[in-house]
Amino acid sequence: MPMAQTCSQTHKFFTERAKQKPQNGIRIFFFLRENGFYGSMFLPYHQSPRSRLLESLADDTELESVPHGKKGDPFTSSIPFQVLSWKPRTVLYPGFATPEQCEIVIKRAKANLKPSTLALRKGETAENTQGIRTSSGTFLSASEDKTGVLDLIEQKIARATMIPQSHGEVFNILRYEIGQRYLAHYDAFNPAEYGPQKSQRIASFLLYLSDVEEGGETKFPYENGSNMDINYDFQECIGLKVKPRQGDGLLFYSLFPNGTIDQTSLHGSCPVITGEKWVATKWIRDQDQDQDQEE
Ligand SMILES: O=C(O)CCC(=O)C(=O)O
C-alpha cells in the first residue's frame, strides 16, 4: 500500500480487508497523516443489529464483536489516536467530533458566555489573580442538552479513557478572543495549596470546537521534564504545543497511576493571535460525580 494515502483511504483499505477475512486477534494499525503517524486499535467482531444512537457511536468500523457484559457494547469501536507525550501522558484523537457537532455546541454556548473564573488557592482573590485566565465561558451539562450531542461526546470520551461518564464534571465551554489566554496551571488540586479535597481530577479532555488561525495552542511547558529547572515564566509558550483543530480531542492525565500529581501536567493556553478559539473542557475525577451531587 503506498505510504502517501489519505487517512480515509487507509481506513477504507483496512475495512475492506476486514470484510474479506474475519479477524481473530486484536490488531493495531498505524497510518500516516500530514502531521505524523497515528495508531488505531481494532477488536474482534461479529455483526449485530445496532440502534441509531449506537450507530453514531460505533464509527464506521465493521469488525466483529464478541458477547459482552451487562453494560458493554454490542459493537466494536475504532477511535484513532496519537500519543503525543508520556510525560505527561497526552493523547490526541484526530476527528473525535464532527464539525456539525462542534458548531452545535458553540451555538448553545454563545448565548451564556461569562468571564472565566479560577479555583482559588489559599490567599488568592479574584483581584490578585486577574489576567491568569482571560477567556469567557459557560458550563453545559449533557443531561440538559436536548440535541443529545454532548451526551454522545461524553460517551465517546468514556470509551476512549475507560473512565465512566459519571466521573466527568459538566463541560466548560471556552471562547478565547485575540490576546486571551490561560497561564500555565495544574488541573489537579494539590491539598497543600487548596486544602483537603473530596475528590481529585485525574485527567482532562479538551475537545477543540474550532480551528485557530494563529496562536491559541495548548502548551505543556514541562513536557518530558524540560524547563523545570529554569525559573519558568508561566506566560511563556514553550514546550509541547498542540494546535487546535476543529473536532480533535486532546486527553492528558494530571495524576500518575499511583494517584500523585504529575508535575509535568502543567499546561495552559497560549494567547490567540489571529482568529478565535473555542474549546470544550471535560475534567474527569476519581469519584462518581452523580453520587456527589446526590449527597
Ligand atoms: O484552552 C486550552 O487549551 C486549555 C484549557 C485549560 O487548560 C483548562 O480548561 O483547564
UniProtKB/TrEMBL annotation:
Q: Does the keyword Iron apply?
A: yes
Q: Write the Enzyme Commission number(s) for this entry.
A: 1.14.11.2
Keyword Transmembrane helix found: yes
Instruction: Identify one Gene Ontology CC term for this UniProt entry.
Output: endoplasmic reticulum membrane
Where found? Endoplasmic reticulum membrane
Question: Which InterPro entries has this protein been placed in?
Answer: Oxoglu/Fe-dep_dioxygenase_dom (IPR005123), P4HA-like (IPR045054), Pro_4_hyd_alph (IPR006620), Pro_4_hyd_alph_FE2OG_OXY (IPR044862)
Enzyme type, top EC level: oxidoreductase
Looking at the record, the residues that make up the Fe2OG dioxygenase domain are: 166-286
Family the entry assigns: Belongs to the P4HA family.
Name listed for the protein in its UniProt record = procollagen-proline 4-dioxygenase
Gene source species: Coptis chinensis
